[in-house]
Amino acid sequence: MALRMIEACSDHVAHDGRPIRMRIGIHTGTVLAGVVGKKMPRYCLFGNNVSMANKFESTSEPLKVNISPSTILSESPGFLTEPRPRNCLPAGFTAPEGTTCHFLYGYLHPGEPPELPLPHHIATALSQLDDEPQ
Fold first, then answer.
1. Category of 118 on φ-ψ map: left (φ > 0), alpha (ψ -120 to 50) or beta
2. How far apart are CA 120 and CA 101, in angstroms?
3. Which PANTHER family match (predicted)?
4. HSE (CB half, 13 Å, CA atoms) of 99?
5. Which pLDDT tens digit goes with each residue over 54-78?
6. Pairing between β-strand 23-26 and β-strand 64-67 as defined by DSSP bridges
7. Enclosing H/E stretch for 126
8. What is the CB-side half-sphere exposure of residue 15 using CA atoms within 13 A?
9. Please, what is the Cα angle at 120 between 119 and 126, to 5 degrees?
10. Per-position DSSP letters for 5-40, written without gaps between them
């Protein structure tokens, strides 16, 4: 979803004519979720991991997806990542020595031709998820 969001906003401009320069941060961990409010109920996420995802967004760069060391996409087949220097980790984030955050810049489904567009690679992966036994 993050890759498709970056792809979609890179072709659009804001109401003032400037390009949209979205940044995305992804962190993996447990959260607490619930609906809050009576007049205007909203679904909200709470917890330290929500704050960490926000910090990974803040330390990202325009039109890039910054993923935390706990989001192990860099070890998953098909996800194209680029490691960042360890000093790019947000303040207050403790990570085991030798780990760092990564920029996620693409996804190529294994076995599909790389020249096909991103939506095709994602659709293939999703169709295989639907075929897996629960």
1. alpha
2. 27
3. GUANYLATE CYCLASE SOLUBLE SUBUNIT BETA-2, HEAD-SPECIFIC GUANYLATE CYCLASE
4. 12
5. 888 888 888 899 998 888 776 678 8
6. parallel
7. helix 118-131
8. 0
9. 85
10. HHHHHTT-B-TTSPBP--EEEE-----EEEEE-SSS
Q: Give dist(CA 114, CA 94) in Å, integer.
A: 36
List, for residues 88-126, the tens digit of each pLDDT value: 888 877 777 888 888 998 999 988 999 999 999 988 888
Dihedral, 117, 119, 122, 128 alpha carbons, nearest 10: -100
Task: Find the angle CA(130)-CA(133)-CA(134) to the nearest 5 degrees.
Answer: 95
> Which residue shows structure tokens 């803040």?
58
116 DSSP 8-state letter: S
Task: Quote the pLDDT of residue 31.
Answer: 87
Provide the residue count of the chain.
134
Q: How confident is the model at residue 131 (pLDDT cuts 50, 70, 90)?
A: low
Higher pLDDT, 96 or 30: 30
The DSSP code sequence of 50-81 is HHHHHHHHHTS-TTEEEE-TTSGGGGSTTEEE
